[in-house]
């Protein structure tokens, strides 16, 4: 194996990494359209995230959170993989934790896994309904100080905890003050 020698001037420091952090789209993806997926990808690109992680929920998790009927996990996951291939972008990842577990995964466990695997800072991309559900959990106040939220649209009725931590979230496409 040959080594290539590079010469750099004294005191040279490599330029800082422009892209940083992870945007995690946490949802069942039952009602999410391709247009909404494109909006999430655009937000990740605009904010220069290293990764966009699509985190589909297992049907057991969805049933415990919302009691809504949902397609089998593998069908929703296959749709996300197909959409990812169509985009041809390497920074998009489909997280398979819930597919491996094949059962209900508490949000705390999912967030701990995401925090261990993906580069920080972490941002959760949520629909207003999912954000209100997240805010209703007792662990919300513990997590909201460790990550930030980006809502796909402005909520018509926000949970009181979501309103309390208004400074930790904003709506996709809103003017930002350099948090990412």
Automatic annotation (TrEMBL):
Name-wise, this protein is Uncharacterized protein
